[in-house]
Write a structure and sequence with these properties.
Number of strands: 10
Structural class: alpha/beta
Helix content: 40-55%
Distance between the termini: 141 Å
Length: 832
């Protein structure tokens, strides 16, 4: 190729001539050629096979023009025109000497620029008659033939007729164009345009196997498309200017015809169709390949064809990608763009389409994708599609187009009418699945309560949750706004993550817990994981309400504030009270006993006052827990301070429970170590005059006071037979522990200190009923042993000598009053 200037092409043309020398007796031969070897003869003889003019064929007047692509000996395609002419000369026999002049262009030259037969015919016809001479190729300027010109010819012929003829050529049969009766054919140049226009409805690459002629005689030939006076057996026919020919036989050829007609009907644009087919210059083939031709036709309507295939479920990812490479997103309407991009996103890895989507990325594409997301159906299906789209953009598009993820993410968040909870779910999913978050998303969480609550709900229900997103929001809120301006749930979250416990409220904690499906249990789990028992203060009111329906929350509180841990007094009080109220950690207030500092105790009492001041049920539960078992010094100290702080409500409960336990209703106190202030209040409220004496007796007994002191306490309490049962119980218990000898010494001391033998009567009071089982037998056995001893002593004292009889003791002497009193004076005043 010499020149590629617009409007024409300067090509090298090889020449050859087949003919006879005038006046000689000789056969036809190649007279001259610029082609090597016998390459020219194959084209020339093939053209000569069309026959010679006959007088009865007026349309067959010379010149004839034949267009050839390949020959039997040279299957490599070329673009050749052979003109058959007669200049009136004859040979030695007087027969006409016809001449066949060949002009041959190499196939790469013509196919590269899709030169048409019309342009080549015009260029060669413009040369002087002797211009095609010599043994060297000649440069020929070939004008372009516009697609518009050929399309106009197709429309003049009638698109269905021209398309029918073109489709017949795909059946690998010869097609004869026969004249309509009584209608003349156009001139030779016009016939070239007709042949060219018909073949223009096939991909240009078909010219590598096509051949055509403006006329053929009766001789046999192998040309594909030609004008002829009549059709011969085995050939297909189409009447020039008549009705469209019968359809082709092959499936692919029929499909091609349907495609041509459908495409023309759809667009009404023959010009665009011809322009597309002229551009289909490869690949060259030695014979018709109808299915390959179908693919080329498909390219004419590639966009809609692929869109329709996708809609029918028969799409191919590679084809969708190819369409987007050919048609920029900005050139497509929303429907086509949606189908193509949606399909590519769904098959991005198969088509390796990440770079394509990145190249096409735009705000409009984001809008289209968002519309597809919400067109998926209900909220669940829409969210699933949004997740898939964002995942593709994150993994496949973002590496080639930074910022594309944020573009689509924000477009989804800004959708005009998203489903409820959409934005919060999307923000959580993006962070949890890909670690993607944006400044804009965080601002939405801090500014929109509904969005934040949805986000928090997803965060809390994830059992493998990371609290890093929550910590990020806490840091951001602390840097941008005051605590009062922050959402309540976020203030409490700050405490869970290490902030000051005083900066949040019970309302904040309830706001946080309400976002979780498992509410307080999840919140307690987080507090325990973060080792933040301080959070219990704000959680307490909501936890107590929840505990009415779920007592097992006490176990979670016990896990948050373990008994053996070192805790603030207020935290310890909250945990003790909650666990006691829910029956979790056994009786009592176990954390109270472990407090070692006065400041801790002060905080403990203040926390109990705060919880119990307005809740009667909690006050009773607190008293029960404080008085469980032996309260001990800490327990009585807390009880006293609570009674002072809540005199009208707390003290009455304490007195009631102490009274019940002292009188046998409820679990009894192991020891009457009730402090004096409380003893005074209990005795004043109830008929418990005995309480002081019982307490004093027990304290004296435990202190191992002298028997005389114990005797004095009993004598001060009254006549033995009328002593309070509780005091008798205390004496009985002491007797069992101390032994009956101790009671004997106390009784002797009583008799010595008061008339009427009160000590002797004490024995009767202790054994007058079965209140103290086994005590009578214990004392009886002791007295018998004592009598045996005394009798032995008397016998020894009254003995008058060896062998003398023992004098009997006068009964009156034994029963004389005051005898035991006198003996009692001889008993030691101190216990050894």
């Amino acid at each position: 190729m010499v020149n590629r200037s617009s409007g024409d092409r300067r090509l090298l043309a090889h020449h050859a001539v087949l003919g006879k020398h005038p006046g000689r007796t000789m056969g036809y031969e190649v007279l001259r050629s610029s082609l090597p070897g016998d390459r020219a003869s194959g084209y020339l003889w093939r053209a000569a096979a069309t026959g010679a003019p006959e007088g009865r064929d007026p349309e067959g007047a010379l010149p004839w023009r034949v267009f050839l692509a390949a020959s039997d000996t040279r299957p490599t395609p070329a673009c050749a025109r052979v003109e058959t002419s007669w200049d009136g000369t004859t040979d030695g026999t007087g027969a006409p000497g016809y001449t066949w002049r060949l002009a041959l262009f190499d196939w790469p030259d013509v196919s590269d620029t899709a030169l048409t037969w019309t342009g080549i015919d015009r260029a060669l016809s413009a040369l002087p008659a002797d211009g095609a001479g010599g043994e060297d190729p000649t440069a020929v300027t070939v004008p372009d033939t516009s697609a518009a010109e050929l399309a106009a010819v197709v429309d003049e012929l009638g698109f269905p007729w021209a398309a029918g003829v073109a489709a017949l050529l795909l059946d690998d049969r010869q097609v004869a164009l026969t004249p309509s009766p009584g209608r003349p054919l156009p001139d030779v140049a016009e016939r070239v345009r007709v042949l060219d226009a018909i073949c223009a409805l096939l991909p240009y690459a078909c010219r590598s196997w096509l051949s055509a002629a403006t006329w053929t005689g009766q001789a046999r030939h192998d040309l594909r498309l030609f004008f002829a006076p009549a059709v011969r057996p085995g050939q297909s026919t189409a009447v020039f200017g008549g009705a469209p020919p019968p359809g082709p036989r092959g499936d692919a050829a029929r499909g091609y015809l349907r495609g041509l007609l459908a495409l023309r009907a759809k667009t009404g644009d023959t010009h665009g169709l011809v322009r597309h087919l002229l551009a289909a210059t490869g690949p060259a083939t030695p014979a018709p390949e109808p299915y390959g031709t179908l693919k080329a036709l498909r390219e004419a309507d590639l966009l809609d064809t692929v869109v329709e295939e996708i809609g029918a479920g028969a799409g191919e990812p590679a084809e969708a990608a190819r369409v987007l490479r050919r048609y920029p997103a900005d050139s497509l309407d929303d429907r086509r763009l949606a189908v193509l991009t949606g399909y590519l996103v769904a098959h991005v890895r198969e088509a390796r389409a990440g770079t394509i989507l990145a190249a096409q990325w735009s705000g409009r594409l984001c809008v289209v994708l968002v519309e597809q997301v919400f067109a998926a159906g209900g909220p669940a299906r829409s969210f699933e599609r949004a997740e898939r789209y964002l995942g593709v953009v994150h993994a496949e598009v973002e590496p080639h187009r930074p910022g594309s993820f944020a573009d689509l993410f924000h477009a989804l968040l800004d959708a005009p009418s998203p489903p409820e909870g959409w934005a919060g779910s999307l923000i959580y999913m993006a962070d949890d699945k890909w670690g993607r978050t944006t400044d804009r998303a965080d601002r939405l969480l801090l500014g929109d309560e509904a969005v934040a609550r949805t986000w928090l709900r997803y965060l809390l229900k994830n059992r493998r949750r990371s609290l890093q997103p929550l910590a990020r929001l806490v840091r951001r809120a602390s840097g941008e706004r005051t605590p009062a301006d922050a959402p309540g749930w976020l203030r409490f979250a700050a405490v869970l993550l290490g902030g000051e416990a005083e900066s949040t409220t019970a309302t904040d904690a309830a706001d946080f817990a309400s976002a979780s499906d498992e509410g307080w249990r999840t919140t307690l789990d987080i507090a325990r994981e973060q080792r933040r028992p301080e959070a219990l203060r704000a959680m307490w009111p909501g936890l107590w309400r929840a505990a009415r329906g779920d007592r097992t929350l006490g176990e979670a509180v016990a896990g948050l504030v373990p008994v053996d841990g070192r805790h603030d007094g207020g935290v310890a009080a909250d945990a003790d009270l909650f666990c006691a109220a829910t029956g979790t950690s056994g009786p009592g207030m176990p954390r109270l006993a472990l407090l070692t500092e006065n400041a801790q105790l002060t905080a403990y009492v203040a926390a109990l006052i705060n919880r119990c001041s307005s809740d009667g049920e909690l006050r009773r539960l607190a008293v029960d827990a404080l008085l469980a078992g032996a309260p001990g010094p800490r327990g009585w100290q807390v009880t006293e301070q609570l009674a002072v702080a809540l005199p009208g409500t707390f003290l009455g409960l304490v007195c009631e429970i102490v009274h019940d336990r002292l009188t046998g209703r409820g679990r009894p106190l192991d020891h009457v170590d009730v402090p004096p202030y409380l003893m005074k209040h209990v005795a004043a409220r109830y008929d418990l005059g005995w309480l002081r004496t019982v307490s004093e007796f027990r304290q004296a007994a435990e202190a191992r006071a002298p028997y005389e002191e114990l005797a004095r306490l009993l004598l001060e309490a009254g006549v033995p037979v009328r002593l309070p049962a509780q005091l008798l119980d205390a004496v009985a218990g002491w007797t069992v522990t101390e032994g009956p000898g101790g009671l004997e010494q106390v009784a002797r001391a009583m008799d010595a200190a008061a008339p009427g033998s009160p000590g002797l009567r004490l024995y009767g009071a202790l054994t007058r009923d079965d209140r103290h089982p086994g005590l009578r037998e214990l004392l009886t056995e002791h007295s018998r042993r004592q009598r045996t001893w005394q009798e032995a002593v008397l016998a020894e004292l009254w003995h008058r000598g060896a062998g003398a009889p023992v004098a009997a003791v006068p009964a009156a002497e034994a029963e004389r009053p005051g005898r035991f009193r006198k003996m009692g004076r001889a008993v030691s005043r101190r216990r050894g």
